[in-house]
Amino acid sequence: MKSCVFIGGGNMASCIVSGLSNIHTDEYRITVCDPNQTKLDILKEKYNVEICLSNNKAVKHADLLILAVKPQSIRGVINEVKSFVKPSTVIISVAAGVKTSSIKSWLEKSNVIVRAMPNTPSAVLCGATGLYANPETSEKTKNQVKKIFDALGYSCWVDDEKDINAVIALAGSSPAYFFKIFEIMQGIGQELGLDEKKAFELLIQTFIGSSKMIRKMENTPTQLREQVTSPGGTTERALNVFNKRNLESTLREAMHNAYERAEEMSEDFSV
Questions:
Q1: To which CATH superfamily is domain 174-264 assigned?
Q2: Second label for 70, Cα 20 to 30 Å away, from 81, 173, 179, 244?
Q3: What is the distance between the alpha carbons of residues 35 and 19, in angstroms, rounded to a whole number?
């Protein structure tokens, strides 16, 4: 059984632990480290993982070390544990904006370092994760890492580390885009006369069903949109408003801003 140690017990760690504990219970011995005892107790009760308040103690025997702390905290954590990390330990960072080169320089060792950018639907095994590792990383190690994140939904490797910032804009941040749209549409459904529960259930089923149609049907999203848009009908009128207000431009600006912030963070946390 491999030892998988998490430093950080926040939302993203919880998402990954959730997936791992459901899928790989016999393959990984999971330990979570966090200074917040209450947070650790919740994770232990919910997922039956080992918990530890001492980062140094936990990392000594780690085969996989997942750094699930905030970007501004990662350098301090690495400085704390670097003398206890085995040379064979694979280090996986989920901290947005922190380059592998920075982690390597702080670690002062030649461990394999992987950047992963999962999103929060990983908690329900419907996540999307972008992965990057240095070119010298073995295929065996890459397969091992990908297996973890495939257990959470879908994962893919990117060839250039800068592409992780595109993953952040497209998948990492986008659950919040969908949640915001859902909030707005549910509220409008209630304005139009539906009660809260009916508005919620109708809308969530529409989100789920639309996603399944894109996934399972041979038609492109453009073709599916055209099929539901009858000339002179209700959908056409709604889409005309989107076109008039330039929805595409709004989304493009939003995603480019997310990408640019990820680029800024890469510079902020590279020193």
A1: ProC C-terminal domain-like (1.10.3730.10)
A2: 179
A3: 23
